[in-house]
Specification:
Length: about 140
């Protein structure tokens, strides 16, 4: 039986006020801002699996859930700085589901700098597994 491998590529960049960009009309998965500075991370699913990403605050508390169909992407905006934890649910086309700890990340969102980043997920049928497994109950938890 082949193991499945998930590679998470994280690239987070903070924009300084010198290179400030206004996010006019930015449409995000969870927030739509017309003229404010917002941090944003685009989540890209580069696999044939459906990925459900659950974003919670590191200290506890729900933030957002993103469902990515195979080979799709979605942008999540953050209106304030914070530390977050990512939980991943990967579901194959034949219904096999696994749950994983996607690690922690932080975003900066101030008047002078804000995070604009990307996280890509790639699933393949080789490697050392998906990383740390968690239970479905842990995935649903806000901690």
């Amino acid at each position: 039986m082949k193991k499945v491998f998930l590679a998470i590529i994280i690239s987070l960049v903070s924009s300084l006020s010198i290179n400030a960009q206004f996010n006019y009309g930015k449409q995000c998965n969870n927030i739509s801002y017309a003229t404010s500075h917002t941090a944003s991370i685009t989540f890209k699913n580069q696999s044939d699996y459906t990925m459900t990403l659950r974003i919670v605050y590191v200290g506890g508390g729900y933030y957002s859930t993103v469902t990515l169909r195979p080979h799709s992407s979605s942008t999540v905006c953050f209106s304030k700085s914070g530390n977050f934890k990512l939980k991943i649910k990967a579901t194959s086309s034949y219904g096999h589901t696994s749950y994983h700890d996607g690690g922690k990340f932080s975003v900066t969102c101030t008047k002078t700098e804000w995070t604009e980043g990307e996280m890509s997920f790639q699933l393949s049928s080789y490697g050392n597994g998906l990383g740390p497994s968690i239970s479905a109950k842990q995935f649903e938890s806000d901690y």
